[in-house]
Amino acid sequence: MADPGSPQIDVSVAHEARVYDYWLGGKDNYPPDRELGDLIRQHVPTISAMARANRAVMRRFVRHLVEDAGIRDFLDIGTGIPTSPNLHQVAQAIRADARVMYVDKDPLVLAHARALMAGNNEGRTAFLMADFMDPEAILSSPEFRETLDIGKPVALMLVAILMYFDADEGNDPYPVVSRLLDALPSGSYLALTHPTGDFDPEAAAGARAVAKQSGMTILPRAEADVARFFNGLELVEPGLVPVPDWRPDPQETPVADPRSVYYWAGVGRKP
After folding, report:
1. Counting Cβ atoms within 10 Å, is residue 49 exposed (0-12), middle (13-18) or buried (19+)?
2. What is the per-residue pLDDT for 2?
3. What is residue 12's predicted lDDT score, i.e. its pLDDT?
4. Pick from 52, 91, 64: nearest CA to 75
5. Dist. CA 131–CA 150, nearest whole Å
6. In angstroms, rounded to a whole number, what is the distance separating the alpha carbons of residues 65 and 238?
7. DSSP assignment of the chain, as one string?
8. Distance of CA 15 to the CA centre of its chain
């Protein structure tokens, strides 16, 4: 019998994490998720390749942050359904004492996180069920205090999540990102990816429209609006670029046209 106090998974409507799981070829999705995923695919036929490109750049972000920037602590918000290798696996393979705190609001993500996101004995891995739009709940949680060492720089990871928040709907992500960064010490980093209509306005508008019909916000942002998230930060080379162009790994299959992945990617350092 289910715990009446536990969050319930609503499979009657599409959910961001499960639609993304569907695009990645996962099995943790339901008919409404697949229906919306296919509708968006009609406007953006390469959407699965874009999802995979986001996973790949996450790994490149983490390797750079651990190897080059000396980061040990990661705050990953909008974790999504676990897809190996997960962030903590990438970080702890390089630095065994890496610490990762995952945050997501989907009960299905919580269920999988508990089962799959065990860290190694030397590092730490924790999961918090919370909403990005409630930064105080994240920052005041026992998981935040016990998992991360905020006396040292922390990497705030926001990979393919900020498009779900629209100020016109009362969900302005800019002050939330600022609040989270304010809570982190000097030398911390922000790493993000964000979809854009800059490369194909018609496709982006079509994807946004069908998502809205299903009750989901997907807001592509122009380059200048994505750059606003880095206000006050020092952009790391190569700056804000199409996802495949952010420090490409020669071992990965190159993307013929980086602008075919309708996402910007960037990393910024807090002075």
Report:
1. middle
2. 42
3. 86
4. 91
5. 20
6. 14
7. ---TTSPPP--SS--HHHHHHHHTT-S---HHHHHHHHHHHHH-TTHHHHHHHHHHHHHHHHHHHHHTT---EEEEES--S--SSPHHHHHHHH-TT-EEEEEE--HHHHHHHHHH----SSSEEEEEE--TT-HHHHHTSHHHHHH--TTS-EEEEEES-GGG--GGGT--HHHHHHHHHHTSPTT-EEEEEEE-SSS-HHHHHHHHHHHHHTT-------HHHHHGGGTTSEEPTT-SEEGGGSS--TTSPPPS-GGGS-EEEEEEE--
8. 15
> Which amino acid is it at 146?
E
Mean pLDDT in residue range 179-201 = 97
pLDDT confidence band for 142 (50 / 70 / 90): very high
pLDDT at 187: 98
At 8 the pLDDT is 67
Residue 265, CA distances (Å) to 88, 125, 158 in order = 20, 25, 10
